[in-house]
Amino acid sequence: MSKNNDIYIENRASSAAKKINKLNIPDEIKKQLIDKKVFDFWFNNKELRALSDNIDIAGGESIQYAASGNYDNHTALIICTNMRVMIINKNMFIGGDFTDIPLNMINGVSIKTRLFLSDIQITNGATNIFLNDLDKTAAPILADTIKSMSKNYQQSIQNVPVQNTTDSTQDMIAELKQLKELVDEGILTEEEFSAKKKQVLGL
């Protein structure tokens, strides 16, 4: 990203921050939008209010980036969080729509840049989600954010330690063998062995 582009984004984000602070949404949502330099949401006030009702701030969900675009021929707000991609459309005539794509279900993200606007395609399993007419500056930021958050989320799931049942099973077998030897040596009775065996096996 060029220095001029960075300055352009900073200027737009600064202007957007003034509008964000006037919105009737929770302060934490305002802070996250400003911190992530979100600037493209000029016709999405209803969607931003709906975002406040759908994002799980208490559960640790946080906004990574957001931008305005068209989804299914309706203006929508597209939000990437650290858990999912949300597409919110609060059309006054159809009552609104909400699409939720978990990050671990995203297989790919591609972007097509046109003269003034850009399109993003999200592959979700066997389904393609088409987001059209995004701001030419905001679109690559959103696409890159979705890619990186999806990759990081899927890696975090894969890196969750799995309990090693092999070691615990081997320890259990070794303990039962020792108890059996004590029975053979006459130190334990069969009744005592049975009781200990149930204890070891958690029965």
For this entry, give a set of tags.
PH-domain like; 7-stranded antiparallel sheet; elongated; alpha+beta; 2 domains; 6 helices; 27% strand; 203 residues
Can you characterise this structure?
With 203 residues, the protein is an alpha+beta fold. It folds into two domains: 3-158, Roll (PH-domain like); 165-201. The protein is 44% helix and 27% strand. The chain has six helices and seven strands; from the N terminus they run H-H-H-E-E-E-E-E-E-E-H-H-H. The protein has a seven-stranded antiparallel beta sheet with strand order 4-3-2-1-7-6-5. Strand 5 and strand 6 (117-124) form a beta hairpin. Helix 5 runs antiparallel to helix 6 (190-201). The model has no long low-confidence stretch (mean pLDDT 87).
Which helices and strands, and how do they pair?
Elements: H1 3-20, H2 27-35, H3 45-54, E1 63-71, E2 74-81, E3 84-89, E4 97-102, E5 106-113, E6 117-124, E7 127-135, H4 138-158, H5 165-184, H6 190-201
Antiparallel strand pairs: 1-2, 1-7, 2-3, 3-4, 5-6, 6-7
Biggest sheet character? 7 strands, antiparallel
Encode the helix/strand succession as letters: HHHEEEEEEEHHH
* Strand portion: 25-35%
The CATH architecture of the largest domain comes to Roll
Low-confidence stretches: none
Q: How many distinct domains? A: 2
Tally of helical runs: 6
- Please state the average pLDDT score: 87
At the first level of CATH, the class of the largest domain is Mainly Beta
In short:
It contains six helices and seven strands. With 203 residues, it is α+β, with helices and mostly antiparallel strands. α5 (165-184) runs antiparallel to α6 (190-201).
